[in-house]
Amino acid sequence: MTTTPDSASRKFDAARAGDYAVQSRIALAGYDACHEVAACLLAASLGSGGSADILVAGAGGTAREIVTAGQLEPGWRFTAVDPSEPMMELAMAAVADAGLGARTTALLGRVEDLPAARRFDAATLIGVLHHLPGQEAKRAILADIAARLKPGAPLILAGNRHAYAERPLFLAAWGERWRMHGASRVEIDARLGKILQGADPPASDEAVASLLVEAGFEQPELFFSSLFWGGWITRARR
Length: 238
What we know:
The chain has 238 residues and is α/β, with parallel strands linked by helices. 45% of the residues lie in helices and 18% in strands. It has a single domain (5-235), classed as Rossmann fold. It has helices at 5-10, 14-27, 31-46, 64-72, 85-97, 134-146, 168-180, 185-197, 205-215, and strands at residues 52-57, 76-82, 104-108, 122-126, 154-160, 221-226, 229-235. Strands 3-2-1-4-5-7-6 form a seven-stranded mixed β-sheet, with helices on one face. Strand 1 (52-57), helix 4 and strand 2 (76-82) form a beta-alpha-beta unit. Helix 6 packs across helix 9. It is globular, with a radius of gyration of 17 Å.
């Protein structure tokens, strides 16, 4: 794997950003449901009806985590962080369309760029980890998030896990999802080639748990699974 964290963010250029809202819902069966359950878990963890500052790491794209949680909890405020300018622009447009612009602060950069003393009530990292090459890059972003959470604060982590080529049935079903939505065989093959070359997911649920524990979190609980995708909730260690 020769991809670096910087080149991982550069993958999400203007062309890919424009395609993201559509392709994310095809590539992940249950995309909206995952975000809805994540918002409900955060509300259950923090208590509904109150105020909270939420860190949304890797917010670029649909901003679904902000839109869904923000509509559920009118007292929450969000800090959206993403290194890709086209993806951040797309996200903030979605935030504005949902009427949440006044409750959302955008930082074009990385979690490590936030003030070291800043502490959030909760955080999300959705659809990011499998794009970061190697264990160290994955541990680093999780550790940066843990360092900016209050003790015991919840984290929602969601993304792909398992080596794609080692799950041929799941990979074939992933291709069928695209056929179900009108993709040609040529387009499906191109997308299969891209997913096999362009991501580095954790090897297993256990690998995800190890990364989280090493970064300063408690053992996670799996709340969502769809082919390669998983969603977990955990807490920053007290």
